[in-house]
Amino acid sequence: MTQGSVASGSRFLRACRGEAVETTPVWLMRQAGRYLPEYRELHEKYGFLTLVKTPELAAEVTLQPLRRFPLDAAVLFADILLPLEAMGLALRYEPGSGPIIEEPVRERRDVERLRTPPAREALGYVLEAARAVRAELAARPAAEGGPVPLIGFAGGPFTLASYAVEGGGSRDHRRTKALLWRAPDLWALLMERLTAVTVDYLAAQVEAGAQALQLFDSWAGALAPEDYRRSVLPWTRRIAEAVAGLRTPEGEPVPLIHFAMPSAGLLELVAEAGGDVIGLDWRLDLGWARGRLGPGRAVQGNLDPLLLAEAPRSLLEARVAAILEAAGPRGHVFNLGHGVDPATPPEHVAWLVEAVHRLGRRGGPEE
Amino acid sequence: MTQGSVASGSRFLRACRGEAVETTPVWLMRQAGRYLPEYRELHEKYGFLTLVKTPELAAEVTLQPLRRFPLDAAVLFADILLPLEAMGLALRYEPGSGPIIEEPVRERRDVERLRTPPAREALGYVLEAARAVRAELAARPAAEGGPVPLIGFAGGPFTLASYAVEGGGSRDHRRTKALLWRAPDLWALLMERLTAVTVDYLAAQVEAGAQALQLFDSWAGALAPEDYRRSVLPWTRRIAEAVAGLRTPEGEPVPLIHFAMPSAGLLELVAEAGGDVIGLDWRLDLGWARGRLGPGRAVQGNLDPLLLAEAPRSLLEARVAAILEAAGPRGHVFNLGHGVDPATPPEHVAWLVEAVHRLGRRGGPEE
Fold first, then answer.
1. Which residues of chain A are within 8 Å of residue B263 when distances are taken between CB atoms?
2. What is the CB neighbour count within 10 angstroms for residue B247?
3. Residue ranges per domain, chain B?
4. Where are the alpha helices (DSSP H) in chain A?
């Protein structure tokens, strides 16, 4: 280990690489979000898209949970659909419902019309937010877990494609599946464009300060494994290979967390596509997943988010301990199995972060 | 094999028992339903609850798909929530939305108020429909796959509990999970009552003519495996044990198909709870599931229902063949991974039944 390197010293980054850690690192998907009153205040004042598109506000929201809790990583506050907007699909967020894409992608001409502008031009506001967060993180006093790194992210290609084709959220992804079954060439063209934009966007995030990346292919679990293998895996593999070649401005490699949901039926295929860390949702046993993935692969997860919101503390503590026990001391990043539930009391999050650090400590420092 | 026995001669029942079959049997979840114009006609005329509660109509709907397609089993047209109504929970079906339970179960007094009337009294209309279907099936000329048996069913205890507690369908089952985490004694009391009613209901269906049973715990897959193990498995096991002790009036054992969804993360636990046949949804590889369940357990599934509705025939044929290949010649009941999608053209179902019988045939008859 290069003890002198700032990035290498972070507990989170060491866990991603399967290296020894003094205790298990923890961050939470949607840790910057609606369960925090200070987030709701900004959200009410500015609205979601303004928060996301104003670098100072996005940076502020990113840092809000870090001011409250000793989390082991910051995760950029952004939205997985921003690249779709950059590609020319007008995006609208209706309060109460999910995002809406006014003119969904249905025909060849819709796909051909999709632009692939460089992220530096089209998504500069995200990159500016990343730079601001990174600067603020660097200015913080050193924490026990080392400097807190910044995680960047992008939506996985199936999830982006589904939003683009369905025109918003979907329970069954019918049109998306129909497209990939009936028009595989057109599907490939769509995936090419999404992949190109995603690879460029992730590289730009790293250039702007992200030290790890997560690929959220949250909806890929709606596919039969054979459909995932044929229609998604080749493109996620390309993204994973591109990320493997990235280095931070400090010369560090950039771990990739690969998350699909539900993960159980796709586990080996998601791992085959790539990722240093495989994200696990709560509907599988983490120890079982480890057994299937083998010792060389780190895992992230996997507490039921509702358990954090609703369960009594004694049960919660037993489950956190069971996950840590199943994961073992190396190659585990503690997280929920999905995003923080908006009804979660912030003090539950405070307790969880403390509990993971307390229960994840096994003997003295191993370094 | 008792060649003389009517029930034993059925291809579907032989496959459930892991015995040799001349080709793979096939039936479809929701094979009696909205994709059939003759069903929609009756539905429009009478409404759902009248269809379900009028034995002649329920029998007619059950038999509709059998008149069109050489399916290997009939499945009773009923609703998993009928026992909840029998227990005292008023049920309403809103067109467009799902079922609504007016006064959901939230407190101890709500659970204590739940009645456990014998199915013969409270659900007599279902049993009468079963008798009518069975009589009509017995009068049919013998088919190549032997006499067509009748499958009865009930909702699994978690799924029933979730409807009762949430007051209808739910995406996250928050109140149900909160109940089982915060008030395990009350949860146990609720599960006791649901289990008692279910065991009695299934036995009554067998007495009325059902020759196999399916337990639909469709929502149990929303639970972390540890929650399923503690809060569901003990009761589903009790149901499975009760079914194992049942005999038809002809003295035949009654195979149980156990279906939870998504199945991948819970597979071993569902099998541990019981069932001669484990139902598989489409989001896992059937061959992989077989490997995990071992050769002694039959499986049912697992084509994506949207594939049947939307995919071109050449792709469909390749996927059907792949499922049959992965399953091997014994202990497989072909089915979709979930119910028939209402937009499925009936001619696709006709094609599928023919294709399974054609592709599932391996050499001459093995008996």
1. 265
2. 11
3. 7-359
4. 11-16, 37-46, 48-53, 55-68, 82-86, 108-112, 119-122, 124-139, 157-166, 174-182, 184-207, 225-231, 233-244, 267-273, 286-293, 305-310, 313-327, 346-359
Rounded to 5°, the CA angle A175-A194-A93 comes to 65
Residue whose C-alpha is closest to residue A213's, from A179, A181, A252: A252
Burial of B45 per CB tally in 10 Å (0-12, 13-18, 19+)? exposed
* Beta pairing, strands B74-75 & A332-336: unpaired
* Selected residue of A179, A226, A231, A323 to mutate for chain B interface (largest B Cβ count, 10 A): A226
Q: Which of B85, B225, B254, B204 is nearest to A264 (CA)?
A: B225
Inter-residue contact B76 to B150 (CB < 8 Å) = yes
Are the C-beta atoms of residues B224 and A283 closer than 8 Å to each other? yes
Rounded to two decimals, the ipTM of the complex is: 0.94
Q: Work out the number of other CB atoms within 10 angstroms of the CB of residue B89.
A: 22
User: Above 70 in pLDDT, residue A364?
Assistant: no
Class (C level, CATH) for B7-359: alpha beta
Find out whether the peptide bond into B302 is cis, omega within 30 degrees of 0. Answer: yes
Size of interface A-B (CB pairs under 8 A): 104
Closest CA to A256 of A241, A276, A272: A276
Query: Sign of the CA dihedral A43, A46, A47, A48?
Result: negative
pLDDT beyond 80 at B29: yes
With contact defined as beta carbons under 8 Å apart, do B231 and B184 qualify? yes
Q: Hey, are the CB atoms on B174 and A310 less than 8 Å from each other? A: yes
pTM > 0.90: yes or no: yes
Kindly give, in sequence order, each residue whose CB lies less than 8 Å from that of residue B67, ignoring residues fewer than 6 positions away: none
pLDDT in the model for residue A295:
86
Residues in chain A closer than 8 A to B182 (CB atoms):
310-312
Q: List chain B residues with CB under 8 Å of A269.
A: none
